[in-house]
Amino acid sequence: MRKIPAAVLGLTLVLATSACGGDDKSDAGTAAKPTNCTNKIVNEAAPRVLVWAWYPNMAKVVDNFNQQHTDVQVCWTNAGQGQPEYEKFQTAISARKGAPDVIMLEADQLVGFEIQDALVDLAPYGAGDVKKNFSDGAWKDVSQGNAVYAIPVDGGPMALIYRTDVFDKYGIKPPKTWSEYADAAARVKAAGGPVFGDFGSNVPAVTTALMIQKGAQPFVYDLADKQKITIKLDDQATKDVLTYWGDLAAKGLVGKEDQFTTDYIAGMVGGKYATYVSAAWAPGYLTGSGVGAGKDKGKFAVAPLPQWDAANPVSVNWGGSAFAVTSQAADKALSAKVAMGIYADEASLTDGWKTQTIFPLNQGVLKSDEFVNAKVGFFNGQTANKDIYIPAENAYKGAVYSPFTVFYYAQLQAQIVKILGGKTTGAQAATDLHNQVVEYAKTQGFTVS
């Protein structure tokens, strides 16, 4: 699941500190056998690999792995979900000690650690053997050229969740384009209905995905040339997307609330929002937050994400995590085996999708009859995997992230706040965002084009 960064990581940067990682084995040779395991070790004689991860069903996943292996055991601990874990990892990178052997990271955070040589290229350790298990887009998200820095587990192909009661009451059909979305929003408001959606400042990853869907390419970056980056945030596509959502908010057609809050969830339950632009993991998140369990039970459905250009559909992603091997791993080959094997067995993947903990990226699951034809309870029995999420995942082409995703998200969030407050336009926000990120990149030693 997606966790929104709370602060900017202390990457003092990267270009100056990148020599602190790599394959330096000075710590690895003397690494003590990890003992602070949350889980039970099945084979005490086997070497252990320390794993940091926060999946809700991780205890079961680790037990499944350990029971199936006699040559290695996972010693698992939850070092925090998302940002808290990243901060601890950054501290360990700077100190050159204290990192786990294997770490769970979100796809959009990988490059920021890759550039510090904090992650191991898994290609020499057999990553290519599992490439066939994933779509091209999922694999692109964890790769740089021929190098592979993590093994995907779950993803977030995006779609449009909507309330069937609201749509039925006002005679609305799921919009196929964002133009139709705006028209439907205006119709519902004119008839005295709820706001149609929400433009939350604290979900900059969503806005970025919609920018990419419109045709924007915010960043071009390749680790082969660490000091060079292309930044393009003042393009017409970015301006159009920020203007579109800013106008909807200014007209009162969508809300301005931060998401993942108690008030927002209460609004979802109470029918305040007719739609929720979100990802395939959203049903699990909403169910866990109490949405769809009371008076709103059976009132949700999902449709394909509206398109900017119906003739040229683009699938985009929000969230998703993977397992990476850190440069401080005591045994990189054994750690790579864990990264490729943990949360990859049938029992763990089945538990993950049935409990709505993950949307699996493993093609073995995506093509299984049970998953394809599953009737999703949150969507009142709709076959959402087959009809919506699997096609979206398979159409996803991957994205290119910057080495400073957290800083970029923070600046985009600040610009959205200004848009919502009527202090700037979408076009001006894009220009200001571009200038801020370019200036930051230059201060960190990048050559920007």
From TrEMBL:
InterPro entries: Bact_solute-bd_prot1, SBP
Signal peptide: 1-21
Iron among keywords: no
Gene3D superfamilies from the UniProt entry: Periplasmic binding protein-like II (3.40.190.10)
Record flagged with keyword Membrane: no
Alphabetical UniProt keywords: Signal
Cited Pfam families: SBP_bac_1
Name of the protein this chain belongs to: Extracellular solute-binding protein
